[in-house]
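User: I'm new to structure prediction. If I give you an amino acid sequence, what do you actually give back? Let's try with this one:
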Amino acid sequence: MRNTARELNNPPPDNLPLASILDCITEVVQIIDRDWNFFYVNQSAADLAGKIALEMRGKNVWETFPELSGSSLEAACHRSMREQIRIDIEFYFSRCAKSFEIHLHPNPQYLSLYATEITRRVRAEVTAEHLAEIALLNARLQKTNEALLLSIVRQHVLTEKEVVLNARLHRAMLESHHRIKNNMQVVSALVEMQMDEMDAPLNKEHLTRIHQHVRALANVHDLLTQQVKDNVDTDTLSTQDILGRLLSMLQQTSGGRRVMAEIENVLVPAEKASALCLLVSECVSNAIKHTKGNIEVTLTVDGANARLEVCDNGPGFPPAFDWRKAANTGLSLIDSTARHDLRGKVYYQNRPEGGGCVAITFPVSAAERSREIAVVRIQE
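Assistant: Good question. You get back a string of structure tokens that encode the predicted 3D arrangement of the chain. For your 380 residues, that looks like this:
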């Protein structure tokens, strides 16, 4: 083949015996002039273009095979002619979906190209590479599976320990809430016994208020105890549940007054629940003591803020009312509970239709706002 290359790199105008020989071989043979036109192609080369060999002579290489434009083969051809060096490359020809081993032999006037099909060899090499990659991946996968199995075993051991710890914590929470509730009920009973033995109305009034507050807090822990028993989230309480229970209790001591409520149901932390119970208990007790007619309790949520209102049909607050000058223990409790426990503010207002209104605004977290809100109306 090298001798043939030397002959064709200096081809005579009509080298018919050699051309006849080259047309009979399966290798691709092309001779290209400096203008990148085919000077000679054998029939195997012409078959790549789907033409007869004589038709291709004189045709431009890159116009005949436009898919070679910008390819590694085009770059190799230009370099071989420019530097006058032999270049050997492997190239995949997409038109016929075959791979070739190509040898480029230049001289100042012509570039000889000889190509042997190596599709089967390339596929065998690719298959061998794929098999090696698959074997490597299988080995890695086996190691990963072993590590995963070990992790699962360890996690299972940890899970069993967590189950035991959670069960202990569950029992501890249940016992704690139950004991707190029972202790508050004992305090409430003792206060009630003292009330029965007292004659002075002022002192009895103070004990009645303490009694209501203790019962309100006991209700909160009663709900927490029930949620622990039911395996429900004990971090939050429903405003519907806590205020519904509280208002039913206050209705029993209202002296025939109607206590009505419209509550947006929000899940709040236990600390906020206790604060809301104390505030509603104190405000409703004040309304029962100082006013007549119905008492209205509302809880609304607007964006990041909530608003609790306790309104009555009484004479309302005097002009420029200042709770600090009123020297009222109950008002001090309202202010401190709203500011410290709810991070809120207290407003004493008069309604246009008559009557006073204590309004408390406080922030609610994004988690609380994300809960589904339902308006609950309570009328006793």
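You can read the tokens as a compact description of the fold. Here is one thing that stands out. The longest strand covers residues 98-106.
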